[in-house]
Amino acid sequence: MIGICFIWAVNVVVGRIVIADLGTPPLLYAFLRFAVVAILLHRFLVPIPRPFGRMVAVGGLMGAGHFGLLFLGLQYASPSTAAIVVQFGIPATAVLSVWLLKERMSRRRVLGTAIAFAGVITVMWTPGGLVPSLGASFVLASAFALSLGSVLMKGMPRIAPLQLQAWVSLISLLPLAIISGLTEAAPVTHIANGGWPVAAAIAFSAVVVTIVAHTGYYRLLQLYDVNLVAPLTLLMPIMTVGLGIVFTGDQVDIKMLAGSVLALGGVAVILSPSRGTLQRRLAAVSKPTKG
């Protein structure tokens, strides 16, 4: 899990460098990432997931919506800011689950959600008040898109990780191609001028991040208790902040530190197992085995 979080953190920093420093159009970058994934995973497009309409909504939100907005955000926001603000997605998922799926929210999750929201607001706060930067706003919207897509996916039959990645990638191609073509000037020229660094970044994002890391994470969720695996994802923003300081010169001030502690602390509260879960786990460990 540590390796997976490190890959995710590197991906954020690489995305920032490719988009902000090398001038790669963010939506075209997202399109090429998904094009590579769709080609490599084309054999997983069969059978077609049902209901297909919901799959289209899920794919659009989790693919074009989340990554398109995230890469737009990285055009303006530092990797450190993006890594913290995107944590908004976890409490947002909890709230959307209550609203759309009528799930119940424990007091612990309500507390964690409030703390996490306070942390994100702290990171986005400026001397003039809550006037988020353009980059942070895009990242916030990307987190919400991923949360909504995740909640909608709960209403679908179980889908294999590689099949999910294949369909999310395929569904994302058309909207990203249209919006990139309409809003990004001479995108192909920018990619050509980027040379091998941009090509390597696209390959890394598509193969190592999407196929290897994401699939590995889903596999861990199948092998181990969610309450054991999910909290370890908090390593990702911590690693991203560290890498951002080293490679992109991120400035981490008191406001950023305070917001990060609140946001990650709130997420940790949400992801932590309940008292009943802990008691059952301890009982299972202490129960003598028959031999």
UniProtKB/TrEMBL annotation:
The keyword Transmembrane helix applies. The chain crosses the membrane at residues 25-44, 56-76, 82-101, 110-128, 134-152, 164-183, 195-216, 228-248, 254-271. It holds the Pfam family EamA. It comes from the Bacteria. The keyword ATP-binding does not apply. Residues 2-124, 134-271 form the EamA domain. GO terms for cellular component: membrane. It is a multi-pass membrane protein. Keywords: Membrane, Transmembrane, Transmembrane helix. InterPro entries: AA-Vitamin_Transporters, EamA_dom, EmrE-like. Its main location: membrane. It is found in: Membrane. Belongs to the EamA transporter family. This is Drug/metabolite transporter (DMT)-like permease. It comes from Aureimonas pseudogalii.
